[in-house]
# Entry
Amino acid sequence: MKKALLIIVIVIGVLAAACALTVPSKEKHAEAIAEALAGDLDDKSYDLLDGKSLTKIALKETLSYKSYVLCSTGRLLGKDVSFGILGHVFVVDANLKRK
# Structure
C-alpha cells in the first residue's frame, strides 16, 4: 500500500513539474489566437503584413495574460479566450468580432 501511494505521489509530482516548466508565454497565447482569427481577415488587403501578423501586433497590446503555476490564460475584452498547459495553447472562444 505504501509503495503504491509513493508511486502516485511521484507521478503527480512529475506531472506538476512538467506543467510548471512548460507554461505557455503571452506570445504563445497571442500566436494561437491570431491563428484562430486569421481566417476572418482578408489577407489580400494588406501589402506588407498579412492578417495574422496584424492580429499578433494588436494582441500584444490588448491581450491580458495570467500565469498560474501549472497553466495560463489569455483574456480579451473581459472574456477568457485561451487556455495554456504543457506548452500548448487552446483557443476557447475565437468569436471575438464585434456585432
Observations:
- Helices lie at 2-21, 26-38, 51-62.
